[in-house]
């Protein structure tokens, strides 16, 4: 009996040690957990108790995510190329309602995309609703962003959306055909082209390039249900299913004046999916009579001979053929608003493309009205943003800091690593900077919502906001003589694109939030 008790005790001790070692192992190996806990330890203004609470939230979040992944694997199903997690770290009581808390509610990565269409020839990926990540993104709740990726010589079946769409071509050579009333418009597009497809417009797409994949970023603005949209396929069969099959046979027979068996043959043949392979002959015929827009990639040659591109009333506009609004050795910025492309006016959008030279940065700045939806097209880097909302949420939990909120606002450093396919949001009024890695240029496409009357306000470099303050205002605001303020704010002679912290002497680098 005594021997049996000893074995039980040994077994219990072994089980406890195994559990502890397993927990330590996953904490050491999980990079997301390490990053989360690192941010907890370095949050400005946190006392030790707040840091411990923050770390516990990180641990609970990772455990919940791992459990949900195991449940998904046991259940089968789901897309394995893009695993989607629940990004909510914890729901906490705030006033009389619960709000979502997330370490970085402004950053979206691979796992936040849903693959809504996938065939052998390509796929369509759509980012989750912005408000699923955080209530802080309610201002852009009725916008969705995604990407279309196809192989060479592919065909995207005719369809329409109950949403306005704005396309940006980053790679490949598509021909996009739209039916407007009783007329068809076809446009041969190139890299850099912007094209708006109004809601309810039947459209089909080919990639006429025989070597390069097609990569189109698209912003959607639903017109039926807020933040929800659907595709309706005019053609199709079993896959994709045509919306004609939703009607009763009697109605279809009368509408088409055709026998039922013929209609069944017509709507029962297609099984390749909505993105399919097309022959060279079919591609050539569909692109033969289309209008062309010869794009110009600005990073491998001289300035374009024509500084401004033109667009028809409903045709494309090439962003990369327009003269850069900002350009120096640290980067180039291309911008288009409703004055350049009338189709952006109704959606109140501005579109920009930034190519940040490796090791360089965009100077800290903020937009007066526009919220920026940014899609990283290529390269690596990171962004930093000052956010009062996350800081106020944390202060409300601390209790003791509540009294200081009205007289001394605080700002949290929101930082996120950027790579191809990452999406990050910069709300209006939030100071932000973006830095390219030392290894690659960082190329970012931005959709700026609420663009009308927006003003971009630089915080450092030439024309910075502070340099325009009166002398007395500078002294009162900073509490030092005006010469000290001017010496610091006038020292940076660059504008917009600057030398980044990776290329400066480490002894001179300071982090200011």
Q: How would you describe the overall organization of this protein?
A:
The protein is an alpha+beta fold. The protein is built from 10 helices and 29 strands. The longest helix is centred in the N-terminal third of the chain and has 28 residues, at 2-29. The radius of gyration is 27 Å and the shape is globular. The termini are far apart. The model is unreliable at 12-26, 73-102, 292-312, 400-404 and 505-513 (pLDDT under 50).
Write the layout of secondary structure elements.
Elements: H1 2-29, H2 31-41, H3 48-75, E1 90-94, E2 97-101, E3 107-108, E4 113-119, E5 122-127, H4 130-133, E6 144-150, E7 154-161, E8 163-171, E9 174-180, E10 183-188, E11 193-197, E12 203-207, E13 214-222, E14 231-233, H5 249-256, H6 260-266, E15 275-277, H7 280-288, E16 291-292, E17 317-318, E18 326-328, E19 331-336, E20 349-356, E21 360-367, E22 371-378, E23 380-387, H8 388-398, E24 412-419, E25 423-426, E26 432-436, E27 442-449, E28 456-458, H9 471-478, H10 482-489, E29 497-499
Parallel strand pairs: 10-16
Antiparallel strand pairs: 1-2, 3-25, 4-5, 5-6, 6-13, 7-12, 7-14, 7-15, 8-11, 8-13, 9-10, 9-12, 11-17, 18-19, 19-20, 20-27, 21-26, 21-28, 21-29, 22-25, 22-27, 23-24, 23-26
Helix pairs in contact: 2-3
């Amino acid at each position: 009996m005594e021997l049996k008790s000893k074995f039980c005790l040994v077994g219990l001790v072994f089980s406890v040690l195994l559990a502890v070692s397993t927990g330590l192992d996953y904490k050491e190996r999980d990079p997301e957990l390490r990053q989360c806990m690192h941010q907890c330890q370095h949050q400005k203004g946190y006392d030790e108790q707040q840091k411990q609470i923050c770390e516990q939230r990180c641990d609970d979040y990772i455990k919940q995510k791992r459990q949900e992944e195991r449940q998904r694997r046991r259940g089968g199903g789901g897309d394995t190329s893009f695993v989607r997690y629940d990004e909510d770290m914890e729901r906490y009581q705030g006033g009389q309602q619960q709000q979502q808390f997330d370490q970085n509610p402004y950053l979206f990565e691979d796992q936040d995309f849903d693959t809504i269409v996938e065939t052998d020839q390509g796929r369509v990926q759509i980012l989750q609703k912005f408000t699923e990540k955080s209530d802080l993104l309610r201002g852009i709740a009725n916008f969705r962003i995604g990407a279309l990726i196809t192989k060479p010589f592919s065909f995207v079946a005719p369809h329409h959306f109950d949403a306005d769409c704005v396309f940006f071509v980053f790679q490949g050579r598509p021909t996009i055909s739209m039916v407007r009333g009783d007329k068809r418009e076809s446009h041969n597009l190139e890299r850099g082209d912007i094209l708006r497809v109004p809601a309810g417009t039947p459209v089909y797409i080919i990639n006429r390039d025989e070597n390069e994949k097609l990569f189109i970023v698209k912003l959607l603005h639903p017109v039926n249900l807020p933040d929800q949209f659907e595709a309706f396929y005019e053609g199709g069969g079993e896959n994709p299913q045509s919306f004609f099959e939703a009607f009763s046979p009697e109605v279809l027979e009368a509408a088409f004046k055709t026998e039922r068996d013929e209609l069944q043959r017509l709507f029962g043949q297609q099984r390749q999916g909505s993105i399919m392979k097309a022959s060279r002959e079919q591609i050539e015929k569909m692109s033969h009579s289309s209008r062309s827009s010869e794009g110009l990639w600005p990073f491998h040659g001289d300035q374009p001979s024509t500084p401004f591109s033109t667009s028809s009333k409903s045709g494309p506009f090439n962003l990369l053929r327009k003269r850069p609004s900002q350009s120096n050795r640290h980067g180039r910025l291309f911008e288009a608003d409703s004055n350049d492309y009338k189709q952006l006016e109704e959606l109140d959008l501005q579109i920009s493309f930034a190519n940040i030279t490796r090791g360089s940065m965009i100077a800290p700045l903020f937009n007066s009205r526009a919220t920026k939806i940014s899609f990283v097209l290529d390269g690596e880097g990171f962004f930093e943003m000052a956010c009062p909302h996350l800081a106020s949420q944390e202060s409300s939990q601390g209790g003791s800091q509540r009294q200081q909120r009205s007289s001394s606002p605080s700002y949290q450093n929101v930082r996120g690593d950027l790579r191809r396919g990452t999406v990050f949001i910069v709300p209006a009024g939030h100071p932000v900077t973006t830095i390219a890695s030392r290894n690659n240029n960082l190329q970012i496409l931005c959709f700026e919502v609420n663009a009308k009357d927006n003003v971009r306000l630089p915080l450092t470099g030439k024309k910075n906001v502070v340099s325009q303050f009166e002398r007395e205002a500078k002294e009162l605001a900073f509490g030092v003589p005006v010469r000290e303020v001017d010496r610091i704010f006038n020292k940076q002679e660059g504008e917009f694109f600057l030398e980044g912290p990776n290329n400066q002497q480490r002894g001179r680098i300071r982090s200011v939030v």
